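Hi everyone, sorry if this is the wrong subforum. Our group has a chain we'd like a structural model of before ordering constructs, and none of us has done structure prediction before. Sequence below.
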Amino acid sequence: MLKRSALVLVLPLVLFGVLPASAAVKASDVIQRAIDSFVRPAYASLHDHAGRLSKAMHALCDAPSQAGLDAARTEFSGTVDAWSSAEIIGFGPIKENNRLERILYWPDRKSIGLKQVQAALADKDPTATDAVQLAGKSVAMQGLGALEFVLYGDGAEALAGKDDAYRCAYGAAVAGNVETMAADVSDAWNKPDGFAALWANPGPQNALYRDGTEAVTELVGVFINELEMVRDVRLKGFFGSSPEADKPKQAIYWRSQNTARSLAGNLSGMDALFQASQLGDALSPDARWMAESIHIQLVNGADTAKSIGGPVDKALADPVLRAKLDYFALVTSSLTTLIGTRLTAEFGLTAGFSSLDGD
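Answer:
Right subforum, don't worry. Here is the predicted structure as tokens:
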């Protein structure tokens, strides 16, 4: 199973650019802008949506109805949108206590998580209906993947009535667990002496980031690693080289038809992060076109994904939508080259000097 943590970023040890003094940008400023204008708002949005989802699940359990089920499903999709943007920051507080995997255990190619969720529903384990106790169970049982099955998997229609109170109680516990984790991560990013301070203030005494180059390399790594994840794991996990090679049920969020929305959210998040950090300001005037190109391609890729709606299997069978998936793959490949090769080459390699530090 290929996990996000297995993707290793290979970047120059030191970034630099032969820039005029007016173009020099401090690494701490770039990172602080990324934190203030993207990371904190993104995880605050996730907390807000997860809270609404939790409330919708409890309302559904208290008064089962089709309208209540529809409302819970709507909030689930909203939470997926918020998570798809925030999850690109897959380091820092989200990595503590296995939160990343607990919020989203994926891919699950051997259906380990699915089997655990199905077993919990079949056995009606009472401890799984308590958010606190659920947090100590398998990571596959307590996140968005588990809740998706509760809301959309086999037997989900029972949630509209009173015949399966356990299923709803378990789903409410999952939603509450996600809300708690989202709150914890958001709070951690806002601590004045927490991870954000370490990332934004690199230096010799900093245990994580010894200089501005290491701090900015973490930022650039978000784009390189996430583009690889989106293209090679999430897209190619279900989109084959031919219709015969397609695996629609390997697509993330295929049950809830949120696959394309998730891909769009990932790219929209990257664009928001790139714009917020103003990383492009560190480029020389002759290379500023890269920043605009990165922005345009991220927007085009996200818009393309947003236009692919409905069930994954039907999208794969539609030549027009299939062509859009091909275009999406092409955009992510182009961005990988532009950011991972050309942008880093523009900054270059040297020993002990970074233009991003403004030295």
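For your construct planning: The chain has 13 helices and no strands. The two ends are 43 Å apart (CA to CA).
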